[in-house]
Amino acid sequence: MENPLLLFPQLNISASKDKAYFKVMKSAIKEEPHKASKPGAKQKRNRLSLLLQKPEFHDGDHPGKPGNLTKAASVSPEEAVKWGESFDKLLCEKAGLDAFTKFLKTEFSEENIEFWIACEDYKKSKSAHELLPKAKSIFETFIQKDAPKEVNLDFHTKEVTSQSMGQPVHSTFDAAQSTVYRLMEQDSYPRFLRSAPYLSLLQGRGPTRAPLRRRSRSFTVKDFQGTRPDLTMW
């Protein structure tokens, strides 16, 4: 009986390919543990593991997320109550100013308080020589058209401020600062007083924090309490 491989040469080619394939796979399986044990790969895995464990990797300052308004240990409920008495009292306290600034960042409107702070610093300038560079910096950052942190000012206030830039004085930004102050007092400040972190400070519990790992959220039974199933889909 003749050898079937001679009658059908394609079988011989296929068999050779299979042998070569299994030989390569066997070699790869033997080498894999060796590769994994190399110091470079191990160090990379260790560095990645440490990175993932760092709080800032999962709990960065992302606008819009709930977070600390200020350290709970540094603010008493009595102090937090004073913040609610008037907008002036909130801004006069460093902890209150910091808390309000962080709140505005969650609303993407921190340029308002940053402008107000810059104006306060500007008015404390001791000499006329200091006014010009400071005024130019404030104007270019917050007021001129398409400024990187442009605040919301009416046309008249912008014009008055712009005209005084040639010879700035201590009162150059008073009108603009008052406009932004009223905007924050009437709009952002009431929302701050209703915010969950501020209410937590009033109760002495400190600001609420979300879990470190927030990349994905798992639903719990509480999420479904008080809800009614939608039977129209069945």
From TrEMBL:
Source species of the chain: Phainopepla nitens
Gene that this sequence comes from: Rgs18
Protein name according to UniProt: RGS18 protein
Residue ranges constituting the RGS domain according to the UniProt record: 86-202
One matching Pfam family: RGS
SUPFAM superfamilies: Regulator of G-protein signaling, RGS
Superkingdom of source: Eukaryota
Swiss-Prot/TrEMBL keywords: Signal transduction inhibitor
BP GO annotations: negative regulation of signal transduction
